[in-house]
Amino acid sequence: MVSLHFYKYFFEVMSAFGTCGLSLGVTSDISDISKVVLMILMFIGRVGLISFIIMIAGRREPDKFHYPKERIQIG
Fold first, then answer.
1. CA 20 to 30 Å from 56, out of 1, 22, 49, 62?
2. Per-residue pLDDT tens for 44-62?
3. Which domain of life is it from (predicted)?
């Protein structure tokens, strides 16, 4: 059987990732590194998982097309 503490911490993690603002008050009991992990999860949840992965991974292949450049004189 899973301990009740696991569910409390799991709720905190899902709340941080979902950036919904709900808490069970166990954040003050966790270590500083765990708080940093929660902050990172809050950031990823706010930015979006796919956007965060693209930001970290970057572009892999160059563009296959180029827009033409032209200086247009008016008047």
1. 22
2. 888 887 887 887 887 777 7
3. Bacteria
d(CA 74, CA 32): 61
* Rounded Cα distance, 41 and 17, in Å: 5
- Both structure tokens of 3: 């301990």
**C-beta separation of 48 from 75 below 8 A:** no
Euclidean distance between CA atoms 42 and 27, whole angstroms: 13
Per-residue pLDDT, averaged over 21-43, amounts to 87
Residues listed for the chain: 75
C-alpha to C-alpha distance for 56 and 43, rounded to whole angstroms: 13
Angle, vertex CA 9, rays to CA 1 and CA 24, nearest 5: 115
**Which residue in this structure is represented by tokens 């693209």?**
54
